[in-house]
C-alpha cells in the first residue's frame, strides 16, 4: 500500500511540475539529487566502517563483556522466564549491548536468536510472551551510549561537531527505555 502512496505522490508532483512549465527544473533536481545521494552514501559507508572498527576494538578489549556483566543482574529483574534460561538471557544481553554501542546491524542476529530462544520458552505459541514483548520494546527503545549511526550521518553532512549528539541521545533513549519498560510491566497485568 505504501508503494502506491509514494508512487502517487511522485507522479502527482512530476505531473504538476510539467503542467506548470517546470520540467527542466525537475530534471535538473533529479540529476543533482542522484549525484549528491551517491556521494553521501560513499561518505556514510566510510564513516560507518570506522565506527564498526571502533566497536570491534571495544568488543575485543572486553568492554562489551563488561557492559553485559552490568546488564545481566538488571535484566534478571525485569524478564520473568527468559532470566531463568542462560541461552535466552545471553542472546538478549548481546543484542542490547550491541544496540547500546550503536551497532544495530550487529545486534540483529542476536535479536533474532533471543526471540527464537524466548519462543522456545513460550507456552502459548499463538501469541508472544510478556518477555518477548518486553524485549521488543527494549530493542526498539534501547539506550544509546554511542549513537554511531547518527554521528556518522552528521559527519557525512559536514557537521561542525558530530559527537555533540551523544549526551542528548543518551538522555532521550534512557527516558524512552524506562517509559517502555514501565508501560510493558503495567500492561502485562491487564493483557
TrEMBL record:
It comes from the Bacteria. The chain crosses the membrane at residues 6-26, 38-58, 88-112, 133-153, 165-187. Keywords: Membrane, Transmembrane, Transmembrane helix. Residues 42-154 form the Nucleoside transporter/FeoB GTPase Gate domain. InterPro entries: Gate_dom. This is Spore maturation protein A. It comes from Clostridium uliginosum. The lineage of its organism: Bacteria, Bacillati, Bacillota, Clostridia, Eubacteriales.
Amino acid at each position: 500500500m505504501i508503494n502506491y502512496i509514494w508512487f502517487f505522490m511522485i507522479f502527482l508532483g512530476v505531473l504538476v511540475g510539467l503542467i506548470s512549465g517546470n520540467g527542466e527544473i525537475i530534471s535538473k533536481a533529479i540529476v543533482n539529487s542522484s549525484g549528491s545521494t551517491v556521494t553521501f552514501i560513499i561518505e556514510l559507508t566510510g564513516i560507518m566502517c570506522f565506527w564498526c572498527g571502533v566497536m570491534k576494538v571495544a568488543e575485543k578489549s572486553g568492554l562489551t563483556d563488561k557492559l553485559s556483566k552490568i546488564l545481566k543482574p538488571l535484566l534478571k529483574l525485569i524478564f520473568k522466564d527468559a532470566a531463568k534460561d542462560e541461552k535466552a538471557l545471553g542472546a538478549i544481553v548481546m543484542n542490547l549491548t550491541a544496540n547500546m554501542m550503536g551497532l544495530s546491524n550487529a545486534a540483529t542476529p542476536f535479536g533474532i536468536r533471543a526471540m527464537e530462544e524466548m519462543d522456545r520458552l513460550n507456552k502459548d505459541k499463538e501469541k508472544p510472551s510478556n518477555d518477548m514483548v518486553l524485549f521488543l520494546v527494549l530493542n526498539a527503545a534501547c539506550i544509546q551510549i554511542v549513537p554511531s549511526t547518527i554521528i556518522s550521518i552528521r559527519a557525512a553532512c559536514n557537521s561542525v561537531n558530530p559527537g555533540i549528539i551523544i549526551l542528548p541521545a543518551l538522555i532521550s533513549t534512557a527516558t524512552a527505555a524506562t517509559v517502555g519498560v514501565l508501560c510493558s510491566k503495567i500492561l502485562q497485568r491487564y493483557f
